[in-house]
Every structure is written in structure tokens, then in C-alpha cells.
Amino acid sequence: MTNNSSLTTTNGQLTFDLEIVVEAEVDGVGMGVLGDGTPFLTLRGLARMCGIDHTTLVKLTSEWGDGSVKAREKKIRDLIKAQGFDDTVFFHAVKKNGTIHHAIPAHVCMAVLEYYAFEVSTDNAHALRSYRILAKKGFSDFVYAQVGYNPDGKVSLAWQQFHDRVSLVANAVPAGYFSVYQEIAGMIVPMINAGVDVGPHIVPDISVGQRWSKYWIAEDLEILHGPRKKYLHDYPVYFPQAPSNPQTPYCYPDEALGEFRKWFRETYIGSHLPEYLTGQARIGKIKPAIATKAIDSFKRKAIASKPR
What we know:
The chain is an alpha+beta fold. The chain is 50% helix and 15% strand. The chain contains 13 helices and ten strands. A seven-stranded mixed beta sheet has the order 1-2-6-7-5-4-3. Strands 8-10-9 form a three-stranded antiparallel beta sheet. α1 packs across α2. The longest helix has 26 residues. The chain is elongated. The N terminus and C terminus are likely disordered.
């Protein structure tokens, strides 16, 4: 998605306009789940699982990425990168009741636990026990079970959000024109089926619309098909874009529909969609495995020739 209006930075870390949908403290360990299904530990919760004072992690987060990488930070960064994740982000800064909360994602938690369990000079049986529990049960399953979160409900929610948007667009586009959102349902459905939480914080039609608009202008398609026009479109009230409703995206002449579909199939799906999904995974909005699954779902299947 090229529009990152729902992202800001706090002390060099990503701030998400995501809600904490469930949060609990279990045996003194703070944990929860974000609106996109991402499980996390709080800073104090992670410190407790490591068997260290939370001020140690507070100091680590304040120094993270300040340019002077000390031995501890370097080792933890290496452990994060070994899992295939971006080592520049230590926590997701999530706003709750007007204040910033530190949500530490799974890969960072496991890297920090591994460091305190195996890398420090003194034995830390507490960190070793915590690491083994999470490694055996799986971080997501552990947190989901502790806070009572049902990840299966997330897919149903994504379908409901998709339905809500389709309903709002259905009668908004003037006769003789088509909207990008209506035309990309064939992309959104496989994404949801792959586990991508398409909704308030993953809005792929923004990416498609912006790229198609650039193509429209670059190829002077108005000369061939006539002018495009803007129409009024509302996001559902629970979307972060809703306060600025009505939105005014472009709709395009029906005469250009064939060209859009060809561009969408050959250019966007073939080149831009993998880039989009990989980018969403890089900033933590989609799990890398889900991004890969979604990308694979769009790969054309080879048709085997029948033996004669």
C-alpha cells in the first residue's frame, strides 16, 4: 500500500493505528493481540519472562537504532535477522487511551529470550524455561490461549468488512463508469482466503488506484476513452479513513474497462502485488508466511499437456 497515513514513528519505531483487541496479565506477564491478529508481549511482560528488571529493556529500547550499537543490541539484532525479520524495529508503538504502549512482536520476544537464555555470561534458568515454553507451544498459540483469543474469527471479520465496503460502493459510481474497488474483488477474495486481514488497516485498492492513475496519465488514456471523473465514496464508520468521508476517488469510463483489466492482470497482479504484499509483511501488517501464501495463490498454474 502506498498510502501510509495510518503509520507514524515513535523513537524510530512504527506506530500503528491498530487497536489492542484483547489484553491480559497472566502470572505477571502482560500480553495481548492487535486488531490484525498480531500477538505481543508488553515491555514489562517480556522482562518478566526473561527474569530481568524491566528498566533493562527500557534502556535497550531507548538506545535501539541511535547509531551506537553495543554488543547486547548487536547480538539481539543478529538473532532477529536470523529469523528473517527486520532488525530495525524493536516494538510496535500502539496508541491506547491517548498514550503509547509498547507491543513487542513475536520475533523480537524470541530473540531477546534467546539472548538471555543462552548468550549472557550468567545462568538464567527463568529465561531458559520461558524460551522453551514458547518454542514448544509456539508464540502465537501461547498468547492466544492465555488471553482467550480466537484467530478463526478474524477471517469472518475480514469477510464482513469486505461486504461492508462493497455495499457502500455499489450504488455510488455513476452510470457509464467503473470503480477500481469493484473491479479488484477477484484479487481481494484470494487474499482473504490466504489469511490476509483485508480491512481498515490493509486497503489494497489504494495501491491499485494510485498505480492505475499513474498509468492512465502516462499513457494519455483520456484521449482514447474520454475523461475520468470523481465520485463520492464513504468508508465504513470503523475505518480510520471514515472521519474524512466522503472520499473522492476516480471512476473511469466503461470504454476503458478492457484496458484496465488487461493492465490489472498482467502488470499489477504480475509485478506490483508481490511488492505490495512483501511490503506489508516488512512493516509487520502481514505475517511473512501469509504474504508468501497470498503471492503463491496468484501464480498461474501450468496446464500439463495430455499424452496422446
